[in-house]
Amino acid sequence: MDWGFTNVVASAGGTFQCACFVMTCHHCGACYVEFFPNAKQENLCFERLGVPAHVLTDNMKSVVLHRDLEGQPVWHSDYDAFMHTVGFQTKLCKPRHPFTKGKVERLVRFVKENFLAGRTFYNVTDLNRAALEWCDKQNGIFHRGSACVPNEVHGSECAQHLHLLDDSRELQGYLCPLRKISFDGFVNYEGRRFGVPYQYTGSFVRVMRKDAWLYIYSEDLQQLLVSHEVTWSKRDRFCKDQYAVPEQPEEFPTAPVKTQATMLPEDELDRSFEKFNFSKGADSDD
Fold first, then answer.
1. Contacts of 50 (CB under 8 A, 6+ apart)
2. How far apart, in whole angstroms, are the C-alpha atoms of residue 227 and residue 204?
3. Which 8-state DSSP code applies to residue 176?
4. CA 8 from chain center: how many Å?
5. CB 139 within 8 A of CB 123
6. How far is residue 28's CA from residue 42's CA, in Å, rounded to a whole number?
7. Which residues of 254-285 are buried (b: 16+ CB within 10 A; e: fewer)?
């Protein structure tokens, strides 16, 4: 697996950078491509091709911090826990030796030259939908390098060495990263801010993006608080009735009300200016 980066020209003017996550099967050449606003660990995806025994990658900051005196990798603590939870091992490429994982390096270049060149799209959902169709097309044709059709081999031979992601609570903690709601009622995810009902301000929530939608759950994943459609827009996304005052319980009398009081009409005269009423003093002298 690897990351690639491309510049996107915004419709309103200016450019911004987005990250492209690529993964390829070393045996059959099956590929998977997905685009994100940034290249963070929480965006690593294993749902499409399955979880292998080993993943070959370079020395990314989100994977390894450095190497010790014996040359052994010192894993990023979050990534180390992620590996053990998902159930795979990581093999690092030799520094400054790009030929070690040439297949995925070539895939990054192929995506840029074949898929991205001259492409237009509306939002991240539209781009990822096109990328998935492009992957299905590439996986369905004959590859001379692996001498097979990836879709035919990956489902039979490669599947014997893969396992699917389980639905354990530990794994959900990585698929739905923890976020804290800001003082003004927003959650920051992938560089964008998404609104949450204001009564949850200051609380912790779990956030997960699935296809075209972003789902915001309670910290224990028991309640869906709100969902948003995902776009590339940098503008804050408000939710319905985000700042509405929550309905409060109201008490009603349990016995007939017999006591009665009378309310008098308010005096329309503003008494703060009464001391400047000089005509009143003149009348009293007469």
1. 158, 159, 162, 163, 164
2. 16
3. S
4. 19
5. no
6. 26
7. eeeeeeeeeeeeeeeeeeeeeeeeeeeeeeee
DSSP E strand stretches across the chain: 2-9, 15-24, 31-36, 54-57, 64-67, 73-75, 89-92, 178-180, 186-189, 192-195, 204-210, 213-218, 224-229
Tell me how long the chain is: 286
Whole-Å CA distances, 91 to 32, 57, 224, 274: 19, 6, 37, 87
Q: Which two tokens stand for residue 118?
A: 């001259």
First to last CA, the chain: 101
| pLDDT tens track for 145-173 | 888 899 888 888 888 888 777 767 777 77
Handedness of CA 233, 209, 37, 177 (dihedral sign): positive
Least confident range from 52-61, 147-156, 260-269, 270-279: namely: 270-279
Residue recorded with tokens 């009603």:
252
Distance CA(173)–CA(148), nearest Å, equals 37
